[in-house]
């Protein structure tokens, strides 16, 4: 099978796509996955590092931007569609899956126009506008939260959860244990979050009596790295401060508590890795979807949530102190998170894609035994 995965921009869109690609390419040595994204997105760096081919188009975002950027995005939209059309003609995929982000729309629509089986994977409880529109064209809509089902044609929806990268799945099998040092993992998303960084630094002032019993692993993003690193060292706290964490599996395995945004991919990782969390939703996310995501975790007892505008350093310190002193509460949150985990999501999604290919092209896909195709190098 040859699959095109379209989209990216942020880790929330990209990493479920990477997880799907891992599942597809490990099933058979002849299976191939090609990503389509933009030069500005995280995929420009991560996809080649993961060993997959990446094609670039000129797509830009149209929501939440100023008038000039909106006009520019609308101007390049026909070009993006034409670029997508040419890429699909060149690779002749058996299935195209959109995972959200600027590149997803043009590629999925071009595939639909070429009668290639298509699907979208919606990570959030509150779907974005692009996926709501694409949901009327594609054959299948994969969702991660039952709350999002109402936004799509019911007959197309499959609730499977968010695909998780293979390196994180080992965490699902780990039993709970307390570490010698209470480790707090702080994540601001793939690009960091200045507000989260600031609240954590403010909390340190109220945690000074525990500095010998706490250790922090903190992903800051590139722009805030030096400030946060100096904040920990100046207060005498033990901390590993980096701009980006590549080995997330080890980071989750070491942590008793995670402080993070509420992006759908992050929440999926929390549930599969069975981690208690304090969620601080990004307040400017489209349609405030991160708060909707977080509320689903809170309702199930798997996390605490605080709005950024309401959270102070002192409140955050109180929660860290309380949870550290109550291993039973942490363990209960981890159990509840595990109940929400869907470690088989990648497999289930890939199974449906294989069936779409067989239903459309037959068991050999578009590679008929009597037809050969030459791959672009």
How would you describe this protein?
- This protein has 377 residues and is an alpha/beta fold.
- It has two domains: 2-164 and 343-361, 3-Layer(aba) Sandwich (Rossmann fold); 168-340, 3-Layer(aba) Sandwich (Rossmann fold), CATH 3.40.50.
- It has 13 helices and 13 strands.
- The strands form two sheets. The protein has a seven-stranded parallel beta sheet, sandwiched between helices.
- Strand 9, helix 7 (225-235) and strand 10 (238-242) form a beta-alpha-beta unit.
- Helix 6 packs across helix 11.
- Mean pLDDT is 89; it is low at 368-377.
How do you describe this structure in short?
By secondary structure, the protein is of the alpha/beta class.
Major beta-sheet overview? 7 strands, parallel
Helix content: 40-55%
- What's the CATH superfamily of the largest domain, by name? Glycogen Phosphorylase B
With strands numbered from the N-terminus, the spatial order across the biggest sheet is 3-2-1-4-5-6-7
The overall average pLDDT, rounded, is 89
Number of domains: 2
Total strand segments:
13
Q: In the CATH hierarchy, what is the architecture of the largest domain at level 2? A: 3-Layer(aba) Sandwich
What is the number of helical segments per DSSP (H or I, 4+ residues)? Answer: 13
Radius of gyration of CA atoms, rounded to a whole number: 21 Å
The top-level CATH class of the largest domain is: Alpha Beta
User: Termini distance?
Assistant: 18 Å
